[in-house]
Amino acid sequence: MKNWKFFMMSTMIGSALVLGACGNEETEGNGNDEETEKLSGSVSGDGSSTVAPITEALVEEYSAVQPDVKVTAGVSGTGGGFEKFIAGETDFSNASRPIKEEEAAKLDEAGIDYTELEIAYDGLSIVVNKDNDWAKDLTVEDLKKLWVEDGTTKKWSDINPEWPDEEVVFYSPGTDSGTFDYFNEIILEDEDIVKATTLSEDDNVLVQGVKGDKNAIGFFGYAYYLANKDSMNIVTIDGVEPTNETIESGDYTPLSRPLFVYVKNESVKENEAVYDFMKFSLENAGEMAEAVGYVSLPEEKYKEDLDALEGLK
After folding, report:
1. Architecture of the structural domain at 17-121+258-310
2. What is the superkingdom listed in this entry's lineage (predicted)?
3. Which residues of 142-177 are buried (b: 16+ CB within 10 A; e: fewer)?
């Protein structure tokens, strides 16, 4: 496998991923050396920008195994991805949160059966500007006090009177993002986010925003922090820093979360390329997740999902 760590961070978000390079005659990275049946066709997906780095690495590797299969994966956010999934436009949908009841109901109305697959763990990371040498640790309650709209001008000194009496500048994933949904559920508890927050589905916009303002604070997936850790500071939450170990163990609570791919059952049954790509993804998701800065699942979980995928055939 190639070393994919941080390869895609500066170029991928905000555009569709379309990869189809020349390959070889042997299977690469799928756990065996058997000759692979060559396929052709197309596979389409969309969804979470948080999951997208894993998908991009998988698509690139898969193109070496099946060069005649064109895999596209847009990054319109978890909610936007589900909209396309519901409309029947995609074979799979990446998500950084579980599917909502209303989304599942719309899929049922549309007659679309699907299967949920977990592919990695993420630790939603709270970051501040590199010159911020005061906000090194925050509690969950501090986060709520900062981020919930209450009609006041938020200042760092509101959290600690020894901190600067300067207005906080907020950056957040957009409302179509599963990362926003997760933060909303865990931190905001469905209250309104600060009105002055800059919202963007493009995590690179958030990265640049935090880098550019001493008083900025933002949040996004762990991989995006790792890709930019030399130019921003991570904030520990209740004394715990997000790392591979604390995310996997659950010690980084409540901001640890699983990442998902939802696949259309009919596509798996009727399109061999969809089945083959999803199988390849599950067989290699752990390694690719680690390579781009996330945390792999236990092997038994990948096996469970592979069994579920096989059961759709």
Report:
1. 3-Layer(aba) Sandwich (3.40)
2. Bacteria
3. bbeebbeeeeeebebeebeeeeeeeebbbbbbbebb
